[in-house]
Every structure is written in structure tokens, then in C-alpha cells.
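Let's practice the habit of predicting before peeking. Look at the sequence and jot down your guess about where helices and strands might fall. Then scroll down.
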Amino acid sequence: MYCRNCGNQVADQAIACVACGSAPLVGNRHCQFCGAETQPQAFVCVKCGVRLSNAPQVGRSQLVAGLLGIFLGGLGVHRFYLGYTAIGVAQLFVTLATCGLGAVWGFIEGILLLTGALNTDAEGKLLAP
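Done guessing? Here is the structure:
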């Protein structure tokens, strides 16, 4: 944490800056490196360029997953890409067992991925836009 008044680094447990006595920056609206105020939804500090510690973890690309679902969804490629191997294998078997009609399942999921209705990968990370 950094002091709100003088900018000196202070311990996380501190209730006052040792140098000037003012309250340190608290909450998740400040950069942990330079102390600059940031937007709550920001991933990177605009002042110093450091990745913010409170930024959500972003996984794979939503666009890539959606396009894979639309064009190769019957083979489960989009599910393999997102880390859902069991569902990917199931989609592959359904498509083979139905002589290709099961590909509709992957096509629909591709549309859902592109619209944002499905937005996490197998690790629970949000998909990057």
C-alpha cells in the first residue's frame, strides 16, 4: 500500500503512514505498485502499466471458441479448446452416431459463446473478448 498524502510505501496492516501520519490508500481502486487511483474494472494501471492484483483472471479467447463452435462444433473442438475434454468427446461421438446431425449442438454452443451466454473456460476463468 501507499500513503495517500506523501506516496511512501506502507505495510498492508498500517493504519497511518509513518512519514506523514495520514491514512494509506485502501481498497481495490489503487495500483499496488505506484498508488495511482484506478477504475474498479481496470486490468492495468494507466500510470505505470502494471497488471492490477484485483483484476479478474482472463482465460482463452471468446471469439476463437465461438468460431470453433460454429465451424467445427460437431467435432467438439471448441470444448477441447476451453478445457472441457469429456464434453468434447461426447460431442464427437454424438456427431458420429447421428451421421452429422449432432453438429447442431456445437453450432448452437458457438453462437452462445459469441453472444456471451457461455463465458468461462474449464478452469473458471472469464473468456477474453
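How did you do? The chain has a mean pLDDT of 83.
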